Amino acid sequence: MEICSVSAEIAPWSKTGGLGDVAAALPKALKAAGHRVLAVAPRYKAYQDGWDTGIRLRFPLFGAMHEVSLYHTESAGFDLLFVDHPAICRGGIYGDARGGYGDNLFRFALLSRAAIEAARRFPVSAGGSAPRALSEAGPVHFLTHDWHAGLLPVYLRHHYQHAGLLRDARVTHVIHNLAHQGQHSFDDWWGLDLPNAAAPTLDMHGVMNLMKAALVSADRVVAVSPSYAREITQPEHGFGLDGVLRARGSALTGIINGIDPTEWSPTADPHLPASFGPEVWPEAPIAPGPVGGKAICKAKLQAELGLPVRDDLPILGFIGRLTGQKGIDLLEAVAPWLAHQPAQVVLLGTGERRYEEFFAEFSRRFPRAVAAKVGFDVGLAHRITAGADILLMPSRFEPCGLNQLYALAYGTVPLVHATGGLRDTVQSFDPGREQGTGWAFSPAAADAFQHAISVALVTWHRFPSSFAAIARRGMAEQNDWGRSAAAYARVMAG
Ligand code: ADP
I want to staple 68 with a disulfide (CB 3.0 to 4.6 A). Which of 57, 146, 157, 346 is the partner? Predict the structure, then answer.
C-alpha cells in the first residue's frame, strides 16, 4: 500500500507524549512490512537532519497566500517530510511558556494541506523500484493522527475529490486521545478556504471541532486500544463525541500500540548504566528484588536521585504528564500513607502547576522515601523504567498507555487502573493460579489504589518468587509493532 501518515508530533524530533512515539514507530513498522510509507510532520525547529527538497507549496489561508517548504530526512527509517513555515517553526509544539499558540488552527491547517500535496509530489523510495509520488504508485492511504490532522479528510473531499483528483484515496483516522478535539470558534471559519458545504462536517454544537470532522469524514476510525474503542462510544469517556462514534458502527475499531525495540529494549538501551534480560528476576530468588543489570540500574537510580541506596526496598515509579487524566489526585490521596510503607517512590512529570507543586512538596517532606523530578527528561524516564520494581499508572482513562508496555519489557511490574489500554495489556496477578503480569485495580478510587499497592508490596517483600514470576511473564510478552502494523494494514485496506 501507499501510506501517508500525518501527525503533529514525531519522536525524537517532537514529542509531548505517546503520540510522538507512535507516529514514529508505526510508519517504521509499516515500511518493514513492505509498504511504501511517507510520514509528514511539522518542522518546529531548524532540525539538523533534514534537507530542503526545493518543493514549495502555496496555500491561501486566513486572507493571505502562504508558502510552505518541505524538508526531507530518512534518518527515521522511512521517508519523513517536515513542513516548514514561519508560523510553524517557532520552537514550541503547541505553545510556549505563555500558553498555547493563538494560531494553532492555521498551523495545523497548513500541515494537512501540505501533507496532501506531499503525497502527490514527493518521490518516495521503495525497495528496488524507482522513487515515485505515492499518488502515482497507487491509491493513497492517509493515516491521520488526532485533531491536528483532522482537516485532512475535509480538504481531501472538498478540494481534491470534488475536482476528480485523488479519487480513490482513503483516510484512516487514529484517535490517540479524545479529550483533545481542536475546538475553534466559527469566527475563524472564513480563514480555512473551505466551501460552505463543508461547514456541517466541522460543526459540533456551533463550534468548529476538528476531531469530529475527522471522525465523520474518515473511511475508518481506529482508537489505540480495543477497550478504549468501546469506552469512547459511551458518555463517560466520549467527551461529547460518543454519539458521533456510535454512528460510525463497525468503521470504528481498536488496535493496541506496540513498542519500538530500537528505543525501548533493556538489552540495548544507551540511557542505562547496565543492560539486562529476564535473568534479573531469578526463579528461586535468595532475597526480594532484582539481581544483575537491573539491580545496578536500581542502585544507580537511587544514587542519581539522592535516595538511600537500598536493595531491601522496592521502588515504585511514576512517569507521565501531570494532568487529571493520569490519576495524580489518587496518588496525592494515598501519598501520606505511601510515604510510610517499606518502599521508595520515584516520580517524573510535567504538567499542571498544582500537581508539580504536590510532587515537589511530597519529596521535600519525605526526602529519604520520595524523589520527584519536575521536567521532561527522556533519559531519566528510561532509567526509572529500568530501575523501578513497580510502575504506578492510576490513570482515570488511558487510550493505550505506553509506559506500562515499556515497564513490562523492562521487568518492572505495572500497577494500573483497569481502563482502556491498561485493561488490555496488564493482566492482574492471580496468586491461586500463578498467572498475571501486574495489578489492575478498579474503581478509580484512592482506597482501591491503596489496596492494590499494599498487595504488591506484600508480594514483593514476602513472596519474592511470585513477584519474580510476575515480572518474568511481563518480560516475555511480545508487544512489538509487527502485529499492530499488520492490523492497521488490514483496517486501511478494508
Ligand atoms: P500520553 O501519550 O497520554 O502522555 P503514554 O503512556 O501513551 O501517555 O506515553 C507517554 C510517553 O511520554 C512515554 O514515552 C513516556 O515515557 C513519555 N513521558 C511522559 N512524561 C515524561 C517526562 N516527564 N519525561 C520524559 N518522558 C516522559
Answer: 57
Alpha helix ranges (H) inside 8-145? 18-32, 104-121, 134-137
Instruction: Give the cell for residue 280.
Output: 534479573
Is 121 a pocket residue for ligand 1 (Cβ < 6 Å)? no
Our answer on whether the CB atom of 349 is closer than 6 Å to any ligand 1 atom is yes
CA 129–ligand 1 middle distance (angstroms): 38
CA 353 to ligand 1 centroid distance, Å = 17
Long-range contacts of 270-273 (CB under 8 A, 24+ apart): 271/378, 271/379, 271/382, 271/383, 272/297, 272/382, 272/383, 272/386, 273/297, 273/300, 273/383
The CB of 427 under 6 Å from ligand 1? The reply is no
Determine the distance separating the centroid of ligand 1 and the alpha carbon of 376, expressed in angstroms.
9
Distance 372 CA to ligand 1 centre (A): 16
Quote the ligand 1 centre to 360 CA distance (angstroms). 19
Walk me through the domains of the chain, giving residue ranges and CATH numbers.
Answer: 2-258+482-493 (3.40.50.2000), 278-478 (3.40.50.2000)
DSSP string, 98-133: TEE-TTHHHHHHHHHHHHHHHHHHSEEEETTEEEEE
Q: From ligand 1's centre to the CA of 245, what distance in Å?
A: 26
- Of ligand 1's listed atoms, the one at least distance from the Cα of 349 is 23
Element (H, E) at 302: helix 292-304
Tens digit of pLDDT at every position of the chain (494 positions): 999 999 999 999 999 988 999 999 999 999 999 999 999 999 999 999 899 999 999 999 999 999 999 999 998 889 999 999 999 999 999 999 899 999 999 999 999 999 999 999 999 987 777 899 999 989 999 999 999 999 999 999 999 999 999 999 999 999 999 999 999 999 999 999 999 999 999 999 999 999 999 999 999 999 999 999 999 999 999 999 999 999 999 999 999 999 988 889 999 999 999 999 999 999 999 999 999 999 999 999 999 999 999 999 999 999 999 999 999 999 999 999 999 999 999 999 999 999 999 999 999 999 999 999 999 999 999 999 999 999 999 999 999 999 999 999 999 999 999 999 999 999 999 999 999 999 999 999 999 999 999 999 999 999 999 999 999 999 999 898 999 999 999 999 98
**Residue ID of nearest Cα to ligand 1 atom 22:** 376
Copy the grid coordinates of residue 290: 532484582
**Residue from 7, 10, 15, 21 whose mutation best tests the ligand 1 pocket (most atoms within 8 A of CB):** 21
Whether 376 is in the pocket of ligand 1, judged by its Cβ within 6 Å, is yes
| Helical residues (DSSP H) of 340-480, grouped into ranges | 353-365, 378-387, 403-409, 420-425, 446-462, 464-476
